[in-house]
Structures are given as C-alpha cells and as structure tokens.
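Structure in, sequence out. Go:
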C-alpha cells in the first residue's frame, strides 16, 4: 500500500506539473484575464549592460543600442565591467559616446551585484536590463515599455531567440520553448510571470529594489515586485537575439543545473509567496511551475524505486518495463547525439527530458552543498 501511494502520488505530481497545470491555466485564461493596458509612450530609459570578458561583443552591442528606434535624448547607456580580464575595459575606454557611463568591478562579483551598482548610477525612469551577447530589433525597447504604461505592471520581459542547429539538444530545446512560451503567455494573461528573461526585461526605476548579490535578480526581482502587488508580463514582440553557439549536451546540462540551483535558492528566499492561504492561485502556480518542476528527479526516482516493490502485479511489471524503455531510449539518444547523428522525435525528447532531470538533480546537490552559482562564465 505504501509503495502504491508513493508510485501514484509521484506520478500524479509529475503529470500535473507538465500537463495538468498547463490545462488548468489555459482554462482559467478563457474566463479570467487581466489584459495589459498598453499605450505608446517614450519615458526616459537607462540601458544597463553587465559584461564579463565581452571583447568580442561589446562594440556591436553598443552600436545595436544606438540603432534602437527610440529618442536618443531619452536614453543613457550604463556598462558595468564585472572584473573583466580581457580587452573589454580597454575597448570601452576607447569608445566616445555622450550617453555612455562606464564603471568597473575590481573583481568578478556576478551579474546581480553589477546590476545593483548600475541602478545607483541610473538617472532615467525605466531600467532596461540587457546582455552584451544580445542584439535587439529596432522596435524591441518600444515594445517593452508600452507595457509599463499599465500601473499594475512592475516588470516586462521579452522573447529570447537562441541559435539552434539540427542537433538533439537544439531539437529538444525547441520543443521546450514552444511549451514555455505558451504557458508564459497564459500566465501573463491570468496573473503574473514568475521571473523574467535576464537578457531582456524592464522595470520602472521607482519600483526597483536591490537584490541580494548571491541571488538571481531576473528571478527574485520580479517575485519581490509580485509580493508588493505588481505583476510581470510577457511581451513576445520584444525580441532578444542571443549570439551564443547552438547548445550542446555539456553546455545545456551546465546551464540547466545552474538555473535549478539559482531558482531553488530564490524560492527559499521568497518562501512567503508559496503560502496558498495568503496568495491563492499565485502561490499554487509558483509551486507548480517552479518548485515541483525542479524537484522532478526526486519524483522520477520515487516512481522507479516504488515500482520495484510492486512487480508481483502484471500492471506494475508493464509500468516498470515502460520506464526502463524510456531511459534506454534516452541513453541511445545520448550515444547517437555524441556522434552528432540527427535524431528523430522519439529519441531526442526522452534525451532532453533526462538531461533536464539530471541537471536539476545536480542543481539540488549543489544547493545542499551551499553553492550559490553567483559568478558564471559563458562558453563562447
């Protein structure tokens, strides 16, 4: 009886996390919506760029900022070099730009600390956070800030587009992004997003509060705003083209494990929002889309382990065989992917799912060891 409860309880949680929650949010969105009252306006904007060893991108990034379709007298550019050890600082010093403000960290302290510093330098109404590796179409900033004309909106985030190839990880990432963007759109209509894409989001300067340096500002910042009654919304027309190599197994694994680590740390810090008696739907959605998803490997192990003790039943023997088949399929996909073979849907989906689950497990282990993931060097 105990193992059956464990089996079905864990299976039920995972089914709800990946399918049930999406269905519930979609149904609610049909009956309860909070449309954003968008208006075209041009408040003054401080563009904030935190850069670590970005000698390859920094010139192009600043040129891209100049190319934004936005009044130049309403823009200022703030670049914080996070203890860069390449020629980033030298390049920045050589750039003559009337609206450019540059400062340098004496040592690498992480993106959140750099953003906190940059906001103390900002003079304009809106803080626009972007990355050195990101390029925006000319209308991206206007698309973002029109959402901030709604007084209920405290943060607006855009749509990142990553380079992809025909590899298994890119294919799996593509399917995951379609799922995420759909869920994000529905959540934004019903209530609020739980975090922002850290390469493209904007917050009114009057609402910004510094985030602790060892936490993820793109996740914790919007949650702090949510606690104060302001929502985060998604603007799909605000695009961020990320100049980063197409993901491979190693890079995606490391990236997802850091996301899980930073995300769980943020949830622990913002535990008050996970009280359904106080925050209702917001709390339940946060638990469903963040906490339970990052705990996926725990539930998967519980299903497999409990199944071992239920093999006397034909049904559970079939269930056990199906689980083994799924993991063997993922392993085959892994072996083929390492040889750069093009994978079909039945191979790359189990592979990507297992990569996400294993990376989440590593993130949880790193969390238990007290790691913060505060500094990070993206592979170029």
């Amino acid at each position: 009886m105990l193992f059956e409860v464990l089996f079905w309880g864990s299976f039920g949680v995972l089914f709800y996390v990946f399918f049930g929650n999406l269905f519930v949010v979609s149904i609610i969105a049909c009956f309860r919506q909070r449309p954003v009252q968008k208006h075209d306006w041009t408040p003054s904007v401080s563009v904030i760029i935190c850069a670590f060893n970005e000698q390859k991108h920094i010139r192009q990034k600043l040129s891209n900022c100049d190319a934004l379709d936005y009044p130049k007298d309403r823009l200022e550019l703030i670049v914080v070099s996070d203890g860069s050890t390449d020629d980033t600082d030298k390049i920045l010093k050589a750039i003559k730009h009337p609206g450019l403000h540059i400062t340098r960290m004496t040592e690498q302290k992480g993106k959140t600390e750099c953003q906190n510093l940059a906001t103390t330098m900002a003079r304009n109404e809106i803080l626009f956070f972007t990355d050195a590796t990101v390029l925006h179409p000319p209308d991206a900033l206007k698309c973002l800030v029109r959402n901030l004309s709604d007084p209920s909106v405290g943060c607006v985030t855009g749509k990142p587009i990553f380079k992809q190839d025909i590899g298994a990880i890119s294919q799996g990432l593509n399917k995951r992004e379609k799922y995420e963007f759909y869920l994000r759109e529905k959540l934004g209509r019903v209530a609020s997003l739980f975090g922002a894409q850290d390469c493209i989001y904007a917050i009114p300067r009057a609402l910004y509060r510094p985030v602790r340096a060892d936490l993820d500002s793109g996740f914790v910042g919007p949650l702090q705003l949510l606690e104060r009654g302001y929502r985060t919304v998604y603007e799909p027309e605000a695009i961020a083209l990320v100049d980063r190599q197409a993901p491979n197994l190693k890079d995606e694994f490391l990236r997802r494990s850091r996301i899980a680590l930073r995300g769980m740390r943020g949830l622990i810090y913002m535990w008050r929002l996970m009280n359904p008696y106080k925050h209702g739907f917001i709390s339940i959605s946060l638990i469903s889309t963040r906490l339970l998803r990052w705990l996926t490997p725990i539930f998967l192990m519980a299903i497999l382990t409990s199944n071992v003790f239920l093999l006397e039943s034909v049904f559970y023997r079939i269930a056990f065989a199906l689980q083994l088949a799924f993991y063997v399929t993922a392993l085959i996909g892994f072996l083929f992917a390492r040889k750069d073979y093009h994978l079909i849907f039945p191979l790359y989906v189990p592979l990507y799912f297992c990569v996400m689950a294993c990376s989440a497990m590593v993130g949880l282990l790193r969390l238990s060891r007290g790691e913060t993931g505060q500094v990070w060097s993206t592979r170029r």
